[in-house]
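Action item from last week, closing it out:
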Amino acid sequence: MKNTTLSLALLSATALSGLSPVAAYAAEEAPADAASAADAADSQTIVVTGTRRAIMLQDVPINISAASAETLAENRVDTVRDLAAFTPGLTVRDTGTNGATIIMRGLTTSDAGVGASTSSNSEAIYFGETPMYIDLKFMDIARVETLLGPQGTLYGLGTMFGAVRYIPNRPNADKWEGSMHGRLFGQSHSDDVGVNGDATLNVPIVRDLLAFRGSVGYWNNPGFIDYNYLLQEPGVSLAQPGGPLGNPADQAGSLNYYVNSRGVLTYERDIIGVNPATGAPPNGWYGSIGTPEQIAANMRSQKDANFEHTFSSRAQLGFYPAYWLRVFGSWVHQETDTGAGQTNSGGVLGTGKYESAKRYLNTSNRVANLFSIETEADIGSFAQLVSDTAWTRQKQRTFSDQTDLLLDLNYDYELFPAFSATTQGKNKTTTFNQELRLLSKHGGPISWVLGGFYNRQHTSREGHEETPGLNAFHQRTAPGAWGDRPDDWEYASRGSTAKTEKAVFGEATWNITDNWQVTGGGRYYKYELDTTGGSTTPLLRGPFARLYGTKVNSRGQTVADFTKDLGPNPAFQPGLVNITISPSHAEKSGFVWKGNTSYKFSSDLMAYVTVSKGYRLGGANTSAVPCTEEILNSTGQKLCLLPNEQFYGPDTTLNKELGIRFGLFDGKLRGSLAVFHIDWKGIQVPGAAVNGASGITVNGSSAVSKGVELAFVARPIDGLTINGSYSYTDAYITADIKGLIAYNIGGASKADALSGDRLAGSPKHSGALGATYEMPVNDAGDMLALNWTATYTGNIYSRMGLRGYGEKLPGYFNNRAYIGYRFVEQELQVKLYADNIFDKYAVTGIANDRSNRIINSGVVSRYYGQSVLTPRRFGVEFSKNF
């Protein structure tokens, strides 16, 4: 049955007991004794089941890092967010539980913000053979692999920067088995107790023919951010009951200047902003929100608001009707509720490191389902056919405080004393994948893989902003000017995109000698986009709304001040919002390739060179409708997209890498060292539409990422294992990007990103060093284990080149440890553990920027924020196999 179990492993899977580099390379079938070889090997041996043979680490020539199930458990790695600290070249900032934004080798143009995404089109996440769009918990996972560099000649879903693959344990048709795992822990700065638990059961329904394997888990992770200024009754309660703060007379030199939508230099008289030289907030920004009595009358508090509740379940059927045929059916379901953002308010209104001044809780709910059928069929001794059919759906609902954005737009909303605003959004992504792959198994000096891939993804979104009580306030202060709306909607948008990709891919390897191999491969792809979308201009605007500014001549000299009443919105119509939706279509094709060669100098030294090209699909902008003559010729605010703004094209990378794999001191030290250079062209960057300045994506500029990655595992003495990793990444743009950096009120000011500017979001230096010592306790073989692991994350730029009030987030060390006892006969392990032992406080991301630290007519903005590192956790953990 061990041989059968090994043959069920996924294509291109790798295993290593420890955090060390490994590689997978698709080719031939393993010999029958591969499983016994793997059983006999120590944790420095890698079983590459993609080649269908047991193979040592030094023999595989592609850059992959892998963490075994033991390593995941040892470091309490529950998601890809936790994995990044131990994986060279991978960055996932700790910004909370709303998802994971993955950055590989420093390549991103986005700010180091406080939000996250559950999927990416520049990196891929796989569950076995299935592309996945879920931030899945690691439960009953055999190992997790991180493939650095473009992937597209061996895998269906082509990627630009790399891929992360979750390799699940498969159903065993030979015997009953199962496991249980749980944690109980406390958390600093929190009054709640955390409880995590999961269980797995394997049932052989028909021996050697049909098996079921199911897992279920629940994660109750307590929050630690206190929200003390939540509105008791929106639209009635005062958000700043103590009244206006700040003294405009003291801030005359800090008026906010910006260029308006007509390109005219203007300023707002009633907005007091940051010191332009130092970025310091205005006088009163740290002031009091009110007396205790005023606060009690208008506000409520919620401690530890940023909790996470996640339920995850998985069911698999394994069907083995013949020795040459294996079929797996899988269902994955996961639901996550988040109580609030893991973000403080940067000290505004006297808030502390673990406090938020938001008026509403920023909640989210995510529900994801994945169904897949994977088939492996041997076609005699010629080839193996692998098929993967999958359907994935993820739904997400969000609710957030939008008050400060609307105040910053300066429509004089603050004249309504109880003004506040929320944004409510719904997003749904449905994906269908079909992949077919042929793998040679005929032997000889040449091996090959040939595949076809089909992917159709449909994404829909809708959202709106509400301003509780504002409509009624308008009826009282300006009766007849506003109509009679049945709701308090201020803005609404809706859109959908259908993206279809078709690709053929493959590669071949020629083993010129026993020590020297050469590989070449390519991928042709074509995609189509069909999109609809639109949004409204602000639905509510009163006769008291005014624009303050200056008129300037052609030489930029001020000639007059002006004040203009905007008046009611001419597009206002009573009743429900009716958004005009306009369809658009685009398509594009391309070709990428890969070349690789490796040479084995000895049994302990191998060198490889890889040159490969990657790509990311283009997309559609759905923030507004396409421009028409009617819209362009109309008066008032225009919100539409020009023809060249509706779509953006693919961007590409050229990755060049040299690596070695080594073994020293009779195998007591093994590892890898790689140097890389990546050219990134046609970068997809944030932009703004000409009409309405809505956010869009455009192609522009170029960038470079170059660096070094090291990983090793050492066993200097019996019982002692030392794991280490280090990466240096220097990523920067190589051509200017005009107007990329948006800052100041409503993003009205623009700054250019200049050639040489460092990319944001990831550190130049990062690493990890851990030591585990195991010793026998008695004749029964029980073991005592001691572990200490330290990780380092270097400083991070919050914004490219630190422009537009960007900040350098300081680097930090994070330490974790455990003491464990393993009862061998009972297959039970108990641990006492602590994460973030010294309760390190660190800022991991920035919401908006310091130019948003303003006071508008005495109303203090709470737009600026900081995501923070999860504080110390300490608890007990157990795991039991049966």
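Closing note: The chain is about 5% helix and 50% strand.
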